[in-house]
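INFO worker-7 received task bundle
INFO bundle size: 2
INFO processing item 0
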Amino acid sequence: MATRDSSQYGNGNGQGSQNANVDRLATGLGWFSIALGAAELLAPDKVAQLIGVEDDDRRRGWLRFYGVREIAAGIGILSQKGQAGWLWSRVAGDALDLTSLGSAMKAGDANRTKLVSATAAVAGVTALDIFCAQQLSRGANGSATDGGDDGSVRVTKTIIIGRPAEELYNFWHDFNNLGRFMTHLDSVQVTGNGRSHWVANGPGGKKVEWDAEIVADEPGKRIAWRSLEGADVQNSGSVQFQRATGGRGTLVRVELQYAPPGGKIGAAVAKLFRQAPGQQIEDDLHIFKQIIETGEVVKSDASIHSGMHPAQPSAE
């Protein structure tokens, strides 16, 4: 889900406001990156004059290269909101810019006063890029994604749904309902004694299967599970239902740990094609919210996605 509503995410103690601030900062950095890149690409001579370096063919070529990099980073930030990857690419670009400015200081034709001002400006933007990337990396938007040394992936996602916890628990506990909002899920078959057989659609259309068992079941509060030996994808997780503050309904918190096929490489490929577990769970939770609150999945008329795909909520 590309856009987050601060009333839907967070833990009710000011996290929603912080989430919105981080999202706004990331959006601002994205547009700044595009604007700066356009200036470097279209008017490298003016940029060279502004930062205090001599305008020549070599420097214009480098500035145009930096401009393309900035535009790509800006588009990436704006098209993958809530993701830290493109912001970290900006941090790497900032480091390159600072190195280039430091080298320019040594040139005899440099205007050191302008170069010092430009360096200070880049350093300030770098600090913002690092801060924003760190916040998104550790889940300032109400979610967290982490990777273990063994290539496993741990994800936490939350959403607030305007219904009682007992109702949400009962709906989730009926495994026949899971396929209504879990878009990657092909089928779930209950085999008895708290066990079930799962079939899901993996990256590249490959089917993955596993047997799972419920390891904790607290009516109206929590369900936890883990896969059994021989699973195509080893995984474990839980879903918790807690009363949200301010009478807003229920905070649903999903935690998942899994080992992607191919380890870290498999996880990277899955993310590239928008099949990372965090992205799936986020979309699935929004569909879950729509089904529970409205009885149907609202899809945008302009949606290019096949199958169920939730319309984006308003940013307001």
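INFO item 0 finished
INFO processing item 1
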Amino acid sequence: MSVPRVFVNQACAPNAQITLEPNDARHLMRVLRMKEGEAITIVHAGEAWHAKLDEVGSDHATATIVEQLKATSSELPVDVIVLQAVPKGMKMDDVVEKVVELGAARIVPLRCARSYGGDSDVKIERWRRIARAAAQQSQRLIVPDVEQPLSFHDAIDRFAATSHVVVAHEGAAQGSLAVSLRRDANATLAIVIGPEGSFTNDELQLATNAGCDIAWLGPTILRTETAAAAMLAAIAALRGWW
């Protein structure tokens, strides 16, 4: 079993004692059945540290830092922002979990003309908790932020000015995703996933006018909750991370 990873807000240094968050303490004790003296990895500010548990209680745990771990390539070589139209039901939970596992740097819930799902402060907080748990499980060095929702118009206006924006659409030219992902290698990528009913013509025209790429994800029609993970896998492969 891999060594459990925990994110903390405290600065780390050899011999420093770190207090873990109650949720992490409960997970270590109740789920992983860990005991005093066992090893964990603590992550702060993108750096990983080897630590040993001093005590583990039902909602309280502390650990002492032993040493800093060597940097590993657990992050994509390019920052990828996932702009995801919120799907109906609980599907956004799965989207957040999977894109974090696959290396997304940030997640922005989208409100599109044909969106079925809704957002709220309660949902956003749940998505942030899911992102944190997925980052720990997948051995990330950062916890990707789930930002406040944006309308499609506001999202394109904001990200087209600073990022290479790629909008997934079944009507794009064959092979266009590979072509798009091979250019602007050093630019931040923003991938845009539409709702169950796809984008409207007006939304696609808005994106095109703003200089965004419209990209084809293959001959099969992917569900909205699948598309972002598929694009991140393509990015990982084409940029040499896999």
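INFO item 1 finished
INFO post-check item 1: The CA atoms of residues 88 and 108 lie 16 Å apart.
INFO post-check item 1: The chain has a mean pLDDT of 95.
INFO worker-7 idle
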